[in-house]
Amino acid sequence: MRKKILLTLSCLWLVITLPVNAAWYEVTGSAVVLQSEDQARQSALEDAVLQVIRYAGADLSSFNRVKPYLKNSREHYQFSGSELRQITVTKTNKKSGNLYLTAQVEVFPSARTCHKVQYKKGLLLGEFDIRSPQHASLGGIYQLGDNFTSVLKRQLETRSQSFVVSGTTRVQINPGYPSQMVMLAEDNDAQYIISGQITDLTSTLDQNLLRSDTINRQFAAELQLLDGKTGEILMQNQYREVANWPFSRTSQVDTGSARFWQSAYGQAVQRVSQNMMLDLESNLACRTNLPEVVRNHGNTVHINQGRKHGVKQGDQLALWHSAGFIDQNGIPRNRMVQTDITLVVDRVYEKSAELSVEQAELANSIQPGDLLTKQIDD
Known about the structure:
Elements: E1 2-8, E2 13-19, E3 24-32, H1 37-56, H2 63-66, E4 76-78, E5 84-95, E6 98-107, H3 114-117, E7 121-126, E8 129-130, H4 144-159, E9 163-169, H5 178-187, E10 192-200, E11 203-206, E12 214-227, E13 233-244, H6 258-261, H7 264-284, E14 293-297, E15 300-303, E16 316-322, E17 325-326, E18 332-333, E19 336-348, E20 353-357, E21 371-374
Parallel strand pairs: 7-9, 7-10, 8-10
Antiparallel strand pairs: 1-2, 3-6, 4-5, 5-6, 10-12, 11-12, 12-13, 14-15, 15-20, 16-19, 16-21, 17-18, 19-20
């Protein structure tokens, strides 16, 4: 018996056939041919593999380990040390400017992957701005920073496995003031802070004698990730895409419109947001989530994470006393001391939860600011 599911996406059609008790998926993906068929083939194959990983419940962070190999135009890919085992491209064809690719994907999702045993981590997202506003004069796309922030937020909220967006802020993110960054994270119940800038929107004109001139435009951005508990920088990455700019040189382009985001350039911008999300998954998925005690009364403890983070009734958590301090240079030094106290989740709300202390005689030692870790069954 086979279970057949049809998923319709904006630029991808998937038909997934899943044999009972097996892990083989047959995927048909499509991509617009932007600059070359090789690029379109790679894009269609990447999107198809990502959809299989999400559907199968495999570890999204594993995608970055196999992505470099998908650049090679081959019919068969085989991997070891990954939940993704094999990819076989069975058919490709081009029609109406689209490249269609059919592949069989073998994947073995593990029940012990990080996103399945950890709660989702809160991210505070800073607004992206355009470093050189004069770069945005072509098309008048001065609002692209705000639009890109919204696209990245949606990418994290709908496609990531390990994060929830605690909020967005227009406050300037400055790693040079770690204590302020810690306070900003605390105010938003965020474990990490993301900031970034759009660094390049320049364009080049390819003049052609026999056909219309072609404008190719850059989209480059940088991303910075800060630890909300210490204010230190954990990751700094640069991203760049180049794509055809299909609009007139004299037109004013609405970067909030479907026309923009469905264009070759809009799709390139979306790929950057997806790559940012995948890098965050690769770097942070297995880092311990740290719910915090925000209130305690008697044997009842309230924490700052709830249903949207994956907290469930009956979960058991271990308590760690926060013993952090600020050194002589004013730098916060995070430190935790494990205790013998175990708590059980009694009630779950959207962004918070109530827990009871199993060792009632030790309840008085719990203080707001103490941290917890989810206990994992052996």
